[in-house]
Structure formats: C-alpha cells, structure tokens
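Hey, I'm writing a tutorial for new members on how sequence and structure tokens pair up, and I'd like a real worked example in the thread rather than a made-up one. If someone can provide the structure for the chain below, I'll link this post from the tutorial.
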Amino acid sequence: MTTNACAKRGFYPEYRSARLWKAIAFAGGVVLGLCSGPLHAAPSSGGDAVQGLYDALLSTMKSGKALGQSGRFTQLEPVIRRSVDIAAMARLSIGPTWASLAEAQRQQLSESFGRYMSAIYADRFDSYGGQKLEVTGQQPASSGVIVKSQIIKANGQPVKVNYMPRLSGDDWLIADIDLGGAISEVATRRSEFAAILKTEGVDGLISALNRKAEVLAISAARTF
C-alpha cells in the first residue's frame, strides 16, 4: 500500500486532525515518552509517570537538533516502551479484531505499534523553544487515574492534555491520552486502522505501521 493510499484512508495523523495533535507536541506536536539518562525508580503514581514522561521529552527536545531524527528515535524508543502500555494501546486500537488474532500476530502488532509511536515522538518532539509541560492534578478513574496536564507553547498559549495511566503489575503505564478531554489517541488510532484492517488485513496493518515508522525515522527534522 502506497503512502498516498494510506493518506487517503486517513491513516497518517498528518492528514487527519493534524492541527489538533500538533498542538499537543509543543505548539505542534503529540501524545507521549521518558528519560534520556539513567533509569529511575518506578513512578509511585500516575502523576509521577506523566511527569517523568515530560521530563524525558524536554531533555530530548533540548538536544533534538544535535541528535537528529534517528538519534531522537533511538533515545525515545526505550522510553516510550517503558512509559506506555504498548500492548494495551495496540489491543484497544485494533478493536474487536484483536480477539481473533493468533498470539504471534498480537506480538507483531504490538512491536510495530511501539515502533510507530516512538517514531511519531522522535519526529514531533524535535526542538526546544521555551515550552513548558506541567502536571496540574489527577483524579480517580474506573481503570486507573486521569492525570491532568497542560503544555504551554512558546507563545504562552496553554494546551490541556489528559493522560490515563493505570497499574500494570507494579508499574504505572499510560494507556490512553486525550486532548482537552475530546480527542482520544486510542479512538483516533482505531478509526485510522479500521480501513486498513478491512482492506489489507492484519498483515497489511503491520506493514503500514512499519512503513510509517521508517518514513518518520528518516524524514527531515521540523521546527514548530
């Protein structure tokens, strides 16, 4: 499936709700990430998990130009994988089809989804211009907690972002994110993936995720 075909189906976020998700990524950007330095102790709360994510993204952005696109991907991929419940997000993004998949297919999809999300972060969190990321509070939710935060753009405009961490064993992992309580990352991905699953099947979706990750990994850095 070509890049144009994927775009027409609404698979790529650049072609669907791009403005809204770019707002998340510092006046242009995203959804999630964590720690460029040594490993820290596991976060003791959902709020700590989000704050750790923000600290890592800021660190990466401040050295983003020196790292380049591939360097940011290399630095952020392990952070994304230990901060986000990749398997849960992949399962929820796939929807009912997940139940019929073989275990090997589930593992392939989770792996591809993790690379895809990591590439998105490396692409969008590419430079620093004085932005701020702040956790402003949290409240209980049926599946964990809702952590409220705001990203303050370089021009001072705040963008509200809610994170949904939940306990997975002893770890707090982010299972979904929404912008202003209105746009869910999981719901957006499910809508995008549905058309590919319908026409190309599971193997087509895996290929599309890997292809998009590769495109992002080699694309030129952008300044928002």
